[in-house]
């Protein structure tokens, strides 16, 4: 199935009910979204979209925002349960320790900034590491800032587009974002990061194993109650990119980086693999990183 | 003994319902106090439910609808179903507090998530077991008890969704006006 088919086959409502660009927010014509979903045969998705309040011909922004905020809070809950912070730290900290000078980690598509705030709260990447969240959804960013303020966390949130990053970083990371992009877009996504002068990237996303669709369905049922969060959670797992698509995109976009996989699909028990990263690193760092990883290096592969 | 064990399991289950109803409604990183509070609210809801069920059961004995022995027999069958489930979940928790991330992952993926998913079916299975071989009124009571346990969590959803106004909505800014493009 081509990317475009897959995206049409498994649409995510969170992509459709709001429209942010790097600089502005555009109103979304509700009837168009609903009609497109129906035309593509997504009766259930269309029905769900129709539950969002409308103001004139557009989705009511406050209502769409409230649904998205609740969904992202539930997403944070899943991240907490799978201990995503620790998962990212154990791969990122060895790299941070290797690099000289101040390190800045930028989380692209940070949403509510759970990971950024978790790093700030636990200082798991070292006290001097700056952590910044970037997202084009200003509503989520404002909520992320307010949550960080409430706990007096030392982190920043900046509005920006993943394809035109003007937030410089030593390492770019993301979680649950790259399945939103087609494989063609992915190359541009990696290119923007290499162009910005980063040493590498770690982008975590759902691993598309044989049991992923069922597991995603079960977990989103058991752990979420916002219908949109359940709907998108299942569709995002179905949209997840295969390892080779990610590797090819790094090669095509960030031509100066070496692609690496950790827990490549099929290499370990699928059940441990929920969120696995595609890694891109400057080639001169790869050997040292592997050494620094210690025992975990056995799970790293150079495709 | 059977009644006491069932009550303990019901209280534990209700406090987990409280925990789950709060989960995903509070965006802070450090939620230890809030989680403990949520579990306590769940346990309180469970205690209230148990008192109401206890009154109903005593009443049923009082008016001769059921007998003490009949209820104990049914309780024993119910307990069997729940003890098996509780043991599996307890093993899951032991795994979840392991120091190895992989073991913690396995516990979540194989036990805790599926455990929550299966919970309604398990609760109903307990009622079916209790009803099987008992009188019609015992069966009815068993299903009322199961339904009451199942309703605790959705009731607490409402509670925490309302409370969310204090834990989340201040963080959700008032709708902002962005420049609207005319089509
Ligand atoms: C599924 S959410 C994941 C959020 C967060 N990383 C997490 O793990 O909870 C995807 C996020 O990516 C953001 N996003 C999608 N496309 C983007 C783009 N082109 N630029 C910036 N952010 C983007 C969305 O606004 C959303 O917050």
How many helices of chain A? The count is: 13
| Rg of chain A (C-alpha, Å) | 19 Å
Q: Tell me the major beta sheet of chain A.
A: 8 strands, mixed
Helix content of chain B: over 70%
Name the quaternary structure. Answer: heterodimer
**Number of separate structural domains of chain B:** 1
* Through-space gap between termini of chain B: 72 Å
**Major sheet of chain B, described briefly?**
none
Characteristic key phrases:
heterodimer, A: 303 residues, alpha/beta, 8-stranded mixed β-sheet, 49% helix, globular, B: 183 residues, mainly alpha, 5 helices
Quick summary:
The complex is a heterodimer of chains A (303) and B (183). With 303 residues, chain A is of the alpha/beta class.
Provide a descriptive summary of the structure in words.
The complex is a heterodimer of chains A (303) and B (183). Chain A is an alpha/beta fold. Chain A has helices at residues 3-9, 13-16, 30-39, 43-50, 61-81, 84-98, 114-122, 138-150, 183-195, 212-223, 227-239, 243-253, 283-293; strands spanning 19-20, 25-26, 54-55, 58-59, 104-108, 130-135, 156-159, 171-175, 200-206, 258-262, 275-281, 300-301. In chain A, the strands form 3 sheets. Chain A has an 8-stranded mixed beta sheet, sandwiched between helices. In chain A, a hairpin with a 2-residue loop joins β3 (54-55) and β4. In chain A, α6 crosses α13 (283-293). The radius of gyration of chain A is 19 Å and the shape is globular. With 183 residues, chain B is mostly helical. Chain B has one domain (2-162). In chain B, 79% of the residues lie in helices and 0% in strands. Chain B contains 5 helices and no strands. Chain B has helices spanning 2-22, 32-62, 68-96, 101-131, 136-167. In chain B, α3 packs antiparallel against α4 (101-131). Chain B is globular and about 55 Å long. At the A-B interface, β2, α5, α6, α7 and α8 of A face α4 of B. The complex binds S-adenosylmethionine. S-adenosylmethionine (SAM) binds next to α5 of chain A.
């Amino acid at each position: 199935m081509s990317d475009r088919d897959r995206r049409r086959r498994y649409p995510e409502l969170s992509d459709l009910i709001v429209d942010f660009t790097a600089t502005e927010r555009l109103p979304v014509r509700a009837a168009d979204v609903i009609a497109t979903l129906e035309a593509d045969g997504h009766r259930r998705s269309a029905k769900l979209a129709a539950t969002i309040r409308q103001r004139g011909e557009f989705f009511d922004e406050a209502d769409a925002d409230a649904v998205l905020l609740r969904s992202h809070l539930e997403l944070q809950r899943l991240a907490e349960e799978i201990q995503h912070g620790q998962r990212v730290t154990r791969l990122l900290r060895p790299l941070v320790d290797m690099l000289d000078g101040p390190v800045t980690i930028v989380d692209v598509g940070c949403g509510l900034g759970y990971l950024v705030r978790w790093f700030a709260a636990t200082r798991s990447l070292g006290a001097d590491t700056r952590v910044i969240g970037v997202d084009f959804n200003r509503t989520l960013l404002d909520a992320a800032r307010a949550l960080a303020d409430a706990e007096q966390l030392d982190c920043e949130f900046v509005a920006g587009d993943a394809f035109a990053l003007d937030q410089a970083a030593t390492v770019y990371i993301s979680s649950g974002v790259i399945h939103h992009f087609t494989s063609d877009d992915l190359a541009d996504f990696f290119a923007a990061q290499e162009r910005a002068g980063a040493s590498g990237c770690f982008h975590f996303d759902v691993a598309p194993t044989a049991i992923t669709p069922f597991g995603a369905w079960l977990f989103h049922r058991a752990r979420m109650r916002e219908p949109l969060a359940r709907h998108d959670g299942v569709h995002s797992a179905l949209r997840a990119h295969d390892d080779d698509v990610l590797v090819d995109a790094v090669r095509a976009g960030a031509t100066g980086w070496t692609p690496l996989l950790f827990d490549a699909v099929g290499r370990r028990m699928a059940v441990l693999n929920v969120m696995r990263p595609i890694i891109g690193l400057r080639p001169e760092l790869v050997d040292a990183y592997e050494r620094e990883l210690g025992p975990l290096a056995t799970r790293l592969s150079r495709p | 003994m059977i009644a006491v064990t069932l009550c303990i399991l019901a209280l534990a289950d209700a406090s987990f319902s409280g925990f789950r109803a709060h989960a995903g409604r509070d965006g802070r990183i450090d939620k230890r106090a809030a989680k403990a509070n949520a579990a306590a609210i769940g346990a309180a809801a469970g205690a209230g439910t148990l008192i109401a069920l206890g009154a109903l059961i005593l009443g049923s004995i009082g008016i001769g609808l059921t007998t003490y022995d009949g209820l104990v027999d049914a309780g024993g069958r119910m307990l069997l179903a729940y003890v098996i489930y509780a043991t599996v979940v307890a093993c899951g928790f032991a795994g979840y507090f392991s120091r190895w991330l992989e073991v913690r992952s396995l516990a979540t993926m194989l036990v805790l998530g599926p455990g929550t998913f299966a919970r309604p079916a398990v609760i109903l299975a307990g009622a079916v077991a209790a009803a099987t071989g008992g009188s019609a009124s015992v069966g009815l009571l068993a299903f009322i008890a199961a339904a009451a346990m199942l309703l605790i969590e959705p009731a607490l959803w409402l509670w925490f969704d309302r409370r969310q106004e204090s834990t989340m909505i201040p963080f959700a800014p008032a709708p902002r006006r962005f420049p609207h493009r005319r089509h």
